[in-house]
Amino acid sequence: MKGIAWGLIGIGLALAVSSAMQIRHVEVVRRWPTVQGTVTFVSQRPDSVDILWSPPGKSYPSGQLLVQYVYRVAGQTYRGSRLGVAPSTARILTWRRLHTWRRRDVVLVYFDPSDPSQSVVEPTVPGGTVFELVFGGLLAAVAAPGLRGRRRVLRVR
Description:
Elements: H1 2-29, E1 34-51, E2 61-73, E3 76-80, H2 91-98, E4 106-112, E5 115-120, H3 129-143
Antiparallel strand pairs: 1-2, 1-4, 2-3, 4-5
Helix pairs in contact: 1-3
């Protein structure tokens, strides 16, 4: 029983720590300097599954949103393709977001001052990160009492 409790605590803590680190990284990226950039390419890489998370009677494409942009820092031109800090895997958002990006749109680009080739345009916390943080903490907390084991009750006659 203690082995299962330790396993659940480990999984919970790993989820919580990983999520907390990702949230912290987003906060660091939000403090990076910004410049204006221009979107040069917008497309979608289809998945092997054509329709996913579609309401009845509607079909939305699934896949990965691909956006490329150019920006200049200190006279040097850079190309970027990262939208956010973490790769987006929320497919339901892809079809919506595909129509919000257009070629030649001006975007605010956050770039790493120590390496301007590293950039993002949406420094936000990915959707499930906060859930993973809370779930991981709860999982560890719920499993912790399992470490005590069973108590033996002595009956006196």
